[in-house]
Design brief:
Helices cover 19% and strands 28% of the residues. The protein is α/β, with parallel strands linked by helices and 274 residues long. The strands form two sheets. Strands 6-5-4-3-2-1-14 form a seven-stranded mixed beta sheet. A seven-stranded mixed beta sheet has the order 7-8-9-10-11-12-13. Helix 3 crosses helix 4.
Amino acid sequence: MVCTVKFWGVRGSIACPSPEHVVYGGNTSCIAVTTEAGIVVFDAGTGIRSLGREIIGRGVGHAQLFFTHTHWDHINGFPFFAPAYNPAFRLDIHGPKQEGSPRGIQHVLTGQMETPNFPVPLAAMRGIVSYEDFEVGSVFSPYDGVTLRTAPLRHPNGACGYRLETEGVAMAYITDTEHLPGTPDENVLFLMRGADLVIYDCTYTDEQFPSKVGWGHSTWQEGVRLARAAGVKRLAIFHHDPEHTDVVMAAIEAEAVQSWDGVVVARDGMEIQL
């Protein structure tokens, strides 16, 4: 095992804790990649609360958090990330520079926790040791032996896709992004190419897509097309529409797996070892 990818939140737009969303999960976007060198977290939707509990239980002392963008479903779990309140914990935060947000990631997270939005200010999170606002396209080395590449995605206000490489394996985290039918996105293909695992924005189906143009999301069918073109080993269907109940998701899973045997459908709590 080189690294473990764990899905803490797989839903898009809004959390949906209902009896109809039990099998696949209702938490919004949060992924943790545990490498030999350390933990890289992508996004801080509601799933990050449970990740925080696991980090405390395992006695982990440091994490690197990277945001794709700062729409609500990718940040609104952050105030409940318990390790960040511990001054003995060390959290480095990284956010892409976005249209309409010139003051950066610290400003956005501060505003989310200001009165009257939240009773506890960001300053109480004494485990945060740094904030970085980066240009999309940058390359990082969050830990020794770990390389993180970035590329822009098509989404209102912009978003950043990631490709993590370590010890000969690669995974990509590509959400939120809207494709142009018939025109493969070269930025997405760059992040995907030859990856062992790709987590892709599959909010809609091809049938639903025409009525959702401009909303900034893609389809599972486009994910399969891109994954095949890029020589991907496994594709994780991700960022599920909150309207897609367990019944709907089961039907999508059956059709997707039949279309390509490299497909898995992400669920809250799922782990994939690379």
